[in-house]
């Protein structure tokens, strides 16, 4: 029979809060289009040529240890609800082992991401040329001859259509 104690419910709730915090902190993006960032300089120019590029990246799950630990903890909490005395200890350990093994098997995954990039050769108004490779933005398409602004931000460059 499954019996839940206040302490097991509190442990399970704490685990869910910790795991959700770890998972959400890894999903933050480094740059958003609507985010205010300091600009170092802006130079205008004209697009000479454009090349669409794709980049494929193999991504391995870096949270495998946390998933295995979480699975073992949840399995142990659930196993602890069954039996009594030394039988309860055995079921607790067995639940932890099965939960950890299941989480390890489920969490052991790799996936492939494909990034769509655009490579632009730009003739700047000061007479120099610059090549910029950036993420493809479906809302902003470029063609050769477009007037653009090259925005130099701290650590990277972004090209937008001139306004």
Describe the structure.
The chain has helices spanning 6-25, 64-79, 86-107; strands at 39-60, 110-124, 129-135, 147-153, 156-161. Mean pLDDT is 74; it is low at 6-29. It has 3 helices and 5 strands, in the order H-E-H-H-E-E-E-E. By secondary structure, it is an alpha+beta fold. A 5-stranded antiparallel beta sheet has the order 3-2-1-4-5, with no helix packed on it. Helix 1 (6-25) packs antiparallel against helix 2 (64-79) and helix 2 runs antiparallel to helix 3.
Quick description:
This protein has helices spanning 6-25, 64-79, 86-107, and strands spanning 39-60, 110-124, 129-135, 147-153, 156-161. It is an alpha+beta fold and 163 residues long.
Give the number of helices: 3
N-end to C-end Cα span: 70 Å
- The quaternary organization reads as single chain
Helix content: 25-40%
Which secondary-structure class do the elements indicate? alpha+beta
* Average pLDDT for all residues: 74
Which stretches are low in confidence, meaning pLDDT under 50 for 5 or more residues running?
A: 6-29
- Strand numbers in spatial order across the main sheet: 3-2-1-4-5
Shape: rod-shaped
Please state roughly what percent of the residues sit in beta strands, choosing from under 5%, 5-15%, 15-25%, 25-35%, 35-45% or over 45%.
Answer: 25-35%
User: How would a crystallographer describe the biggest sheet?
Assistant: 5 strands, antiparallel
Cα gyration radius (Å):
26 Å
Counting DSSP E segments of at least 2 residues, the number of strands comes to 5
Please provide the ordered H/E string of secondary-structure elements. Answer: HEHHEEEE
């Amino acid at each position: 029979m499954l019996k839940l104690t206040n302490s097991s419910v509190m442990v399970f709730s704490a685990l869910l809060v910790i795991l959700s915090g770890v998972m959400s902190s890894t999903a933050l993006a480094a740059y958003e289009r609507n985010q205010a960032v300091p600009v170092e300089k802006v130079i205008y120019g004209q697009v000479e040529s454009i090349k669409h590029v794709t980049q494929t990246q193999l991504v391995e799950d870096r949270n495998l240890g946390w998933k295995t630990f979480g699975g073992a903890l949840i399995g142990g909490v659930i196993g602890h609800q069954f039996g009594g005395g030394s039988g309860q200890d055995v079921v607790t350990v067995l639940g932890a082992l099965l939960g950890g093994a299941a989480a390890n098997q489920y969490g052991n995954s790799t996936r492939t991401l494909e990034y769509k990039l655009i490579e632009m050769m730009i003739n700047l108004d000061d007479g120099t040329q610059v090549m910029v490779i950036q993420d493809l933005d479906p809302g902003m398409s470029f063609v050769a001859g477009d007037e653009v602004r090259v925005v130099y931000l701290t650590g990277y460059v972004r090209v937008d259509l001139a306004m």
